[in-house]
Amino acid sequence: MIYIAGKISGLPHAVAVAKFAETKKQLINLGLRVINPMQMGIDHLPYEDQISECKKAISTAALAIFFQRDWEDSNGSNSEFLHVKELNDHRNPKIVMYYEENNGYKLIEKDIRDKSNKAILACLIPIQNK
User: For 92-117, what is each residue's pLDDT tens digit?
Assistant: First the structure.
């Protein structure tokens, strides 16, 4: 499973939903199973509880995380990034991290140790130069 991270706070709800839906569609078209935080049913929770639930999803289900182009403008995505870095200090296999750049995908951390992660890498690397 690959988790989508990106800016949500500060965007109109419909824009954020559409942005995450489009990323999910693209990743599904690559044959990946996707965790879309916009579809986790946690919007009613306070912000800190939403972030906590997202971190739980990353910790328990994600083999990879995909950072949308605007992730660095998001406190939540930055928190998820630091969470993955911390997890990877104590976890094997590591969670592979990708970020969106210029209509393609770029690997930002590579530590491939199992077949599931290799399958994800094979899907993302060929479209880097789109």
Answer: 777 878 777 655 565 544 443 444 44
Instruction: Read off φ and ψ for residue 46, nearest 5 degrees.
Output: -60, 155
The one-character DSSP state at 37 is: G
pTM metric for this prediction? 0.80
- Give the H/E segment covering residue 26: helix 13-29
Neighbours of 61 (CB within 10 A): 12
Helix (H) or strand (E) holding 49: helix 47-61
Instruction: Quote the pLDDT of residue 32.
Output: 83
* Region of poorest pLDDT, from 9-23, 62-76, 108-122: 108-122
Q: How far apart are CA 83 and CA 122, in angstroms?
A: 25
Listed residue (55, 71, 92) closest to 9, CA to CA: 71
Q: Are the C-beta atoms of residues 68 and 4 closer than 8 Å to each other?
A: yes
